[in-house]
């Protein structure tokens, strides 16, 4: 607006700067709010003044009343009657004590004297037999008198609880402890009418009703009884303080016993009152007892040992558990909310549900002397209520740990400050950060009862008793049995996951050890799974001859094991293991002898037979019950497989027959394949981890000693298997999207079908992934025939991954002259095979042969003492990698144990038989030894020989001083096996693997098992298929398949020994093994070229034939065969040529 018009008057008579309507309304509203605020502030100030004046007035009155009360009590040292006690003693006392103590939440010295005086008067009155003098006789009077007594008794109990919490229990507050002792005695007497000496039989009804009213008041949460007792117990040390005075100890014991008596009053009163009354109040008492007391860290450890039987009495613990089950949904919700808040505020603290779980297990199982290792249940305990409520707590605890079953505060130290006051619901774990780890282990000690066999047997006997009662009442027994067994399965499935989360070192080992060796438990789990997953199939031992026929195919190993097992020393162990499956040895042998199906019939069965229909969706389609059973079964059986040797598995067939083993393998194979194909969710992680471990153990055992048909392992992928190239690409994408440091990501998310279950892809598909031929570029080397190893190491070892390029070899003969011929691939093949032959020879010292009948190669432990020994082994890894990279077959196979290391896998005890059968037999002798193992004078050491000297190696720290006993013999056996199979050859396998992976991808190698790796390396069979070779042979130079010389050639080759045929193949192709997939894949193709040699006709009639020898062009896989006329001449010349170790020179 222009400046001259700024103050113009409008035609409406108002200024041009007038306020708008909205602004005017806002201003009015603001003024109105200001007036209202002023009015409220004034009213509040007046109210505060009135409250403060009233407070001061009441305070003055209370102090005056206290002085008058003290004066009257001191002057009238007479026996008070019940009405005088109520009106003269208690009424003013409750008034001024409620104001002076409750308001300030502390008790001064003057109030303490009043409390002592009042409590002594009341105790004397209650102990009086005169009804007129006994204060508690008011309950037998008029209705008004009973109301007065109940009101005053409630106030007295609240005052006693306040004193219990606020008094100083240190040495400085020793005098105050007496006040607490008096108060707790009074509170106990007030809640037990049997201690009132003036009550007669006709008055018990009134007394019982009054006490009932008082006890239900205690049970109510609003009274704060359990909260006060919790705060008191929290101050008690988990371990009794040393050097405490006997007087103080006696008073503290009396106070603790009285406090627990008050806490347990509702349970005992409900137990004696009969049914039909106080159900709701008992429910409140159980909930308060659980939330405020059972969630105290080290609750049982803080209490005197003599008080523990009262806590685990059936009238307390069983009643509490049954009541808690009624409101389990509300309790679970409240626990979850509290723990969620606790973890959010203080992530270093153990959730309170963890302490409730540990305390309940301890009270339900500990013996009277407080031994935490006892697994026996308390007498009269309601086991059904116990199991079901523990499952609820365990599931809530696992929810606090996270969906993946891992502790949310995994990477943080867990602590607690016991000495500081905490919120009544505040939870902690330990006293300080410095002792966190050791006391964290102490928490798991509270759960040790579940690791005892007597604990599990008690639950199994319960299941048996319930099913028996159902049978006696002519009801269906199948459902109760399954339900009760499921309860046990849920119970231990949760415990396994809790132990794994809390103890990263031992994990669930204590629980699995007990479950694995409990007779009949594993077989019961399998029976339920078998009925569900294999409906309609026979459960006998049919097709068992499959295992027998396979055993016959392993003549050497099987016969040795049978001879050894025939001895009596193994019978006891075998009989124990037979109990696990519920079968006797005679039943097992009978099943073996009565099997009617043959190996061939089972081997040729369709893959669909082994594809379990119920598991085709993986864990997604499983019910919660089946999910739990599978997890528990896989966890137990994968643990048991670690200690089962081949004798027990194949010959004695414990804990399962071979037919059952095949069903288990097919179940796991189908589950894992379909789970990984569809993606593993965090919810299914624990199940899949156990299933994958169990599957791998069974598959590795089948690879060493077959018990499953090949179709079983291929079966899950027959219907919807992706091409291996697509599976490999999927794995690359998954690996790229998972953050390596993300601990919350499940382990299976980065895995895929091709890494977890590569066996579902046929061997031919897997091996086609890496054999690609020479890389770009070339490397020229000159090799002396007499120094092939030295020259190769010097010229090729430093190349590393550049060794993928083509190698052009020029040989120098032993006479020092260059050999004829150009290298178009054949000479490089010859070089690789010759250097492998030289270095893998035991005489060279780098590798030795295993003591088994197969005589497979294993690194020589003395190689580290040789010059450049480790470097030479690394170079050998590159040589083998070059052969694998270009598809060149070598004449050597490695030991199963060594290949396991190259593939990044751990070797277990049962694999020792393939490396050192004698040591394996000796360890089995120790395992099955019936006497005292100390008689064998063994310790935890092993002897290693190198360069003629013996070295003592300790299997564990201080092993030479640890004697092997019957208790630790399994540890000794596995320690020896671990040293021989893993630790001893680890430096050599690492060096070899470094060279190998320079040329071959480790991820590709892991697609194969040990046998398949050797097949990749050497082609497996030591003979060639003449029919396949003849079918894929080309003829040049004038030869045809019908030529006379060609017919004579194939007749001669057919008459060769296997080794001679291999030598012929090496002569032509520089490799004695045929291609893995047949001669169809030999490039260039095997070729017979005609070499025309004219012989005069008369010379032919005189028996003369061609004198020229056959020659070869290994670069082109071509045999240059002269036109021989006679069979004998062709055979003689061909044998001479292939044994001359020459090629081009023969031309």
Automatic annotation (TrEMBL):
Q: Enumerate the InterPro entries for this protein.
A: E3A/B/C-like, HECT_dom, Hect_E3_ubiquitin_ligase
Organism of origin: Coffea arabica (Arabian coffee)
Q: In which pathway does it act?
A: Protein modification; protein ubiquitination
Q: Which GO terms describe its molecular function?
A: ubiquitin protein ligase activity
What is a single Pfam family found in this protein's UniProt entry? Answer: HECT
Entry function = Probable E3 ubiquitin-protein ligase which mediates ubiquitination and subsequent proteasomal degradation of target proteins.
Its recorded name reads HECT-type E3 ubiquitin transferase
* Swiss-Prot/TrEMBL keywords: Transferase, Ubl conjugation pathway
For this protein, what reaction is catalysed? S-ubiquitinyl-[E2 ubiquitin-conjugating enzyme]-L-cysteine + [acceptor protein]-L-lysine = [E2 ubiquitin-conjugating enzyme]-L-cysteine + N(6)-ubiquitinyl-[acceptor protein]-L-lysine
Q: Has keyword tRNA processing?
A: no
* Residue intervals of the HECT domain: 803-1147
Per the record, the similarity remark reads: Belongs to the UPL family.
What are the recorded Gene Ontology BP terms? protein polyubiquitination; ubiquitin-dependent protein catabolic process
Against PROSITE patterns, the record matches this protein to: HECT
> Which top EC class applies here?
transferase
Q: Which CDD domains match?
A: HECTc (cd00078)
The EC designation for this entry is: 2.3.2.26
- Catalytic residues of the enzyme: 1115 (glycyl thioester intermediate)
Q: What is the lineage of its organism?
A: Eukaryota, Viridiplantae, Streptophyta, Embryophyta, Tracheophyta
